[in-house]
Specification:
- The protein is built from ten helices and eight strands.
- By secondary structure, the protein is an alpha/beta fold.
- It folds into two domains: 5-16 and 83-211, HAD superfamily/HAD-like (Rossmann fold); 18-80, DNA polymerase, domain 1, CATH 1.10.150.
- Helix 9 (188-192) links the parallel strand 7 (177-181) and strand 8.
- It is globular and about 50 Å long.
- The model has no long low-confidence stretch (mean pLDDT 95).
């Protein structure tokens, strides 16, 4: 099957922001709910939008909690994020092959810009869809469909790639193939429950996929 476009989640897929996200939640929840949440508990908050998380955990205080989250997260961002092996090099190779690249994330556009600056990859993406660009975030199909529309590609030629259930479900709901990443903080077994089309053991697996090489 021909592949002309790759749609990527960002956090935990292209840049390892897991420690940053968990520590940010621990910081603000320890202040509000001392001792209630462990670092393991906070893994569940990787994936959903901040709006979804705080609407559920602190109803009526969402805006204030998001502001606190963003303040601590921004102040500690560059010190706590790390890279994944060969991500930038693979993106550059895919771009050189003429593959259209997009980001489809539940993160804000501001946060995505900060992360892309660290990754040094902003110039490689034709389209960036963040939480503030849509009414409904993943797993709703809207963000994926918007990215496809902006890229000008069909569902059949695209793959949605991510580290979380929201990414796989969002891709499926939009009618595109999906790929989980084995470096997900939640693990391969967790992602396999959602039956992605592919499971990437390494970022470079995408090269074979777009070339149509059997894996």
């Amino acid at each position: 099957m021909k592949t002309t476009a790759l749609l990527f989640d960002f956090d935990g897929t292209l840049l390892n922001t897991n420690e940053l996200i968990v520590q940010t939640f621990m910081q603000i929840f320890d202040e509000k709910f001392p001792g209630k949440y462990s670092t393991q508990d906070c893994l569940q908050f990787i994936g959903p939008s901040l709006q979804q998380t705080f609407d559920e955990i602190t109803p009526g205080e969402t805006d204030a909690m998001i502001a606190k989250y963003k303040e601590w997260n921004a102040a500690n961002h560059d010190a706590l994020v790390t890279g994944y092996d060969a991500v930038l090099e693979t993106l550059e190779e895919l771009h050189a092959m003429g593959i259209k690249l997009a980001i489809v994330s539940t993160k804000s556009s501001e946060g995505l810009a900060r992360g892309l600056n660290v990754l040094k990859a902003a110039h490689l993406f034709e389209v960036i869809v963040g939480a503030d660009d849509v009414e409904h975030v993943k797993p709703h199909p809207e963000p994926v469909l918007l990215a496809l529309e902006k890229l000008g590609v069909s569902k059949e030629e695209a793959i949605m790639i991510g580290d979380n259930s929201h990414d796989i479900e969002g891709g499926k709901n939009a009618g595109v193939r999906t790929a989980g990443v084995a470096w997900s903080a939640k693990g391969v077994d967790y992602l396999n429950r959602y039956e992605p089309t592919y499971m990437l053991e390494h970022m470079r697996d995408l090269i074979d996929i777009v070339k149509g090489v059997e894996r």
